[in-house]
Amino acid sequence: MIKIGDIEKFSIVDWPNKIAAVVFMQGCPWRCPFCYNQSLQNLNSETDATWENLIHLLEHRKGIIDGVVFSGGEPLFQKNLPQAMETVKNMGFEIGMHTGGYNPEALAKVLPYLSWVGFDIKAPLEAERYKAATGGIAEIEKVKESLNLLLKSNIHFECRTTCDPRILAPKDIFAIVDTLSGLGVKEYYIQKYRPIESDKTTTDSDCEQFFNVEIEDYLKQKFATSGLRK
Prior knowledge:
Helix content is 33%, strand content 21%.
């Protein structure tokens, strides 16, 4: 059905106010420098998790968890995602997803199954900035189209940005906030970057520079729901 890198049996942090299992799907077209799940980037990497493992787990989680979050990697990278979501939803679970929105056509196919989406905003919504934040790969118009699909839907979603100081500065957060609020986004969070293993130079002070009263107040002014996640 789908290729799975790993399965988190029980999570209270991957879907706000929900208890969920998390399916880390294998494969991602982007190469973000701050990626915490680099082992999931290659679609063809060997893993121990299987679709059968997931179904067996969910059979024993009915009445215990609220839903299942399809994460990654990038869930929209695998063509059988709609069928996988339909199967899980028919088992009685709500469906959530984490995505960077790289493929609006694929997103449109799974919208009927979704109750919530965590939409990652990598950088200011400008072509060159987005390419820099995704390893030179992302097509900004596709990201914008995906975001527009969510805005037109009735699906609850949040936008969030991981504040990697190697590619972002505090002024970029203000630019992102202005763009998203102008589009009609209601919920936005910034998340603290924790240096990946290969990053030997970024300090905690570098990471903390985004978390100040000025930015927090600006988020509160622009969004119905917002916050700083450390």
